[in-house]
Amino acid sequence: MRGESQREPAWTRAESEAMSAALEAARQGPRGANPLVGAAILIDDRLIAVGHHRGAGTPHAEVDAIETARRAGADLSRAELLVTLEPCGHTGRTPPCAQAVIDAGIPRVIHAIDDPNPTAAGGAAALRAAGVEVRSGLLAEEAAVLNARWLECARAHRPFVTAKTAMTLDGRIAAADGTSQWITGPAARASGHDLRARADAILVGTGTLAADNPRLTARVGAAPDPADDSPSSVAPASPHQPLRCVMGLRPVPPDAALRADDHWLHLPTRDPREALAALAALAEHGAGHVLIEGGATVLTAFLAADLVDELVVHIAPLLLGSGRGAIGDLGITTLAEARRFRPDSPPALLGDDLVIRYAASPRAH
Known about the structure:
Number of helices: 10
Structural class: alpha/beta
Distance between the termini: 15 Å
Strand content: 15-25%
Radius of gyration: 22 Å
């Protein structure tokens, strides 16, 4: 995944260490429609600043590092910028990073891998046109692994998929009588609303819709319960609301709580690939990140199709012994076929509940 400018560059120790610092910083960002990106700035082989992207609408990694360097009084006309992904060349929620680098007067840039997104790509060419020395390929393999599934999504023109589930210690999402509210405590449930606020679309099955009648909105605050998903909840709404999606063959009832406005969609299918094709068509309108919240049927379907790129598991210190399992039959008959995930950040204890984030392993090609 090297750029065109230099196939076998000779990297200095300082450059390699700076790119390593950028990769470590990138891991602090949230996964979703945007890749994890980190940046570092060297002056005379000294690491001056490190930055990373903190999510949609926030400064990109390059700008974050530039602003940090400026606050330190650095002379950027002598700087070298190292970034884990080619600087973007388009205007989205933020201006083009390539132009920010040019405006900062930075003369040299190294990016680990090229951006496969045709909308965002082109930053390296813009930098070269402005007289900036551009090289690529440093720690390219590590950068590709970091964003392996995001890169696959970008090339396939499909949304990045996060699946979130809340379960007991023995893997149950509901008791034998169907009760499930609430398995996890308020702190863990509030973190689920943070996930909703980052997603462009939230997806549940018609079974979950019938059982819980959720509003599927992202909410903040603590009045009275920041994660109460009942229609009567008065917790304030987040500024960003995902498209509310229901997947399944059963119709959406006229009195369903998610019908509060027109910002919802029914996907009359049980095939996750067909559903994702429909959502992928919405990517041009901002649906680049889909959050699956349940139930077990929908989650199982996406896992079976290997279409879950990130898995967020909330584990409550409860035992039920029976009831609804979090995941059904994936069609796996031998250990070698297991769906594999790797821990993406240290587990977090929210109240009494454990929250663990996993990134899906790259597909074998």
